[in-house]
Design goal:
- By secondary structure, this protein is α/β, with parallel strands linked by helices.
- The protein folds into two domains: 3-114 and 298-327, Quinone Oxidoreductase, Chain A, domain 1; 128-268, Rossmann fold (3-Layer(aba) Sandwich), CATH 3.40.50.
- Helix content is 26%, strand content 27%.
- The chain is built from eight helices and 15 strands.
- It has helices at 44-49, 120-142, 160-171, 186-192, 225-234, 257-262, 276-286, 308-316; strands at 4-12, 15-23, 33-42, 66-74, 84-88, 103-106, 112-113, 152-154, 176-180, 196-199, 216-221, 235-243, 265-268, 300-303, 323-327.
- The strands form three sheets. Strands 3, 4, 5, 6, 7, 14 and 15 form a seven-stranded mixed β-sheet that branches. Strands 10-9-8-11-12-13 form a six-stranded parallel β-sheet, with helices on both faces.
- Helix 2 packs across helix 3 (160-171) and helix 2 crosses helix 7.
- The structure holds the ligand C=CC(=O)SCCNC(=O)CCNC(=O)[C@H](O)C(C)(C)COP(=O)(O)OP(=O)(O)OC[C@H]1O[C@@H](n2cnc3c(N)ncnc32)[C@H](O)[C@@H]1OP(=O)(O)O and 1,4-dihydronicotinamide adenine dinucleotide.
- Residues 43-45, 128-129, 132, 156, 158-162, 181, 200, 222-223, 227, 244-248, 269-272, 315, 318, 320 line the site of 1,4-dihydronicotinamide adenine dinucleotide.
- Keywords: Oxidoreductase.
- Residues 18-326 form the Enoyl reductase (ER) domain.
- InterPro entries: Acrylyl-CoA_reductase_AcuI, ADH-like_C, ADH-like_N, ER, GroES-like_sf, NAD(P)-bd_dom_sf, Zn-ADH-like_protein.
Length: 328
Amino acid sequence: MEKFRAFVIDKQEDKIQSEIKPLSLTDLPEGDVTIKVAYSSINYKDGLATLPKSIVRNYPMVPGIDLAGTVVESSNESFKKGDEVIVTSYELGISHFGGFSEYARVPAEWVVPLPEGLTIKEAMILGTAGFTAALSILRLEENGLTPKNGKVLVTGATGGVGSIAVDILSKKGYEVAASSGKKSEHGYLKQLGAKEILSREEVTSDDGKPLRKQLFAAAVDPVGGKTLEYLLSATKYGGSVAVSGLTGGAEVAASVYPFILRGINLLGIDSVYCPMEKRLTVWERLASDMKPANLDKGIVNEVSLEEIPSIVEKILNGEVRGRTLVKM
Ligand SMILES: C=CC(=O)SCCNC(=O)CCNC(=O)[C@H](O)C(C)(C)COP(=O)(O)OP(=O)(O)OC[C@H]1O[C@@H](n2cnc3c(N)ncnc32)[C@H](O)[C@@H]1OP(=O)(O)O
Ligand SMILES: NC(=O)C1=CN([C@@H]2O[C@H](COP(=O)(O)OP(=O)(O)OC[C@H]3O[C@@H](n4cnc5c(N)ncnc54)[C@H](O)[C@@H]3O)[C@@H](O)[C@H]2O)C=CC1
């Protein structure tokens, strides 16, 4: 087989270099399923992967925590040539060559059959960010959230997780408040279904107060840090906060008061090692009742392998809106 193209990073003297390289199938890591990748997507974690002090475990590496495409070869009976599949996270793009490549090879245990109701392209517009938004909402609902409980706040709302959470929640009949640092994107957030828009500062705790006015029935929080501190203090009695991210910081100071006086729940959201049974449920829901209404509208920006470095820089600076699809 002829060579194919992959975006490869390497680390030399604490500096990361990237280039598009020709690879052969024999360069790919071991695995039972070889996939012709149609689309990947760029997540915040891919931005972290390109930093010198990085989450990548070995170099050279093909980053890309998401991919979707068609099986070209499988030694596992669950998958056959021609099957359309999705792979997100696990070790993809961290210690195992990932999705920024025309071909990928992975263990069968990581592979999700494309659910009916989604195209390969839609699956990657969603990607890990969409999966995480849906998993967050699923967990909030498992903990009692319904549209009757009141307003749900989505933080980091113009980002990948945030945009898709706003869309899904509003489609499901929730009153959605969205917080964003980007004044220019209020129209975008309203188009996705947000009823109210709050500034980043309004949802950041700068005084360490343990309790505030009870404003939100629940929150989807990809920001963390002092925003999470604020959310814990402003969640209504019995409500929940689903935390998935750290764009606002990894450190969180908390007191026991919201938990013991208001019975609130702090739900940790992990998409990376999410068990396969739950993973399949989340993808089925994303293909049906949780399928966002605006996937083909302002959420998506499509790029080539060549454009990855500029997007990665923007994502780390908080300058990207919605989701970035990489077309092979
Ligand atoms: C799409 C998903 C996301 O975007 S999540 C956000 C991106 N991820 C991160 O920013 C996390 C990156 N990890 C770190 O920064 C560090 O691991 C740390 C700060 C969380 C902890 O660092 P420390 O040096 O104290 O410990 P180790 O790195 O040696 O890890 C300790 C222990 O935890 C295991 N571990 C590390 N990363 C993960 C992970 N992402 N998920 C689950 N477990 C993780 C690691 O293997 C070690 O366990 P051991 O049993 O010893 O192997
Ligand atoms: N737990 C998990 O399994 C997952 C975690 N994540 C995490 O969720 C977060 C968001 O991921 P994506 O949506 O892919 O990223 P993104 O880059 O698309 O969105 C990030 C959002 O955070 C905002 N932001 C940036 N800096 C901020 C700050 N200092 N304060 C408040 N907001 C800030 C940005 O403006 C943007 O709206 C990241 O931390 C990522 O690592 C994402 C997917 C899965």
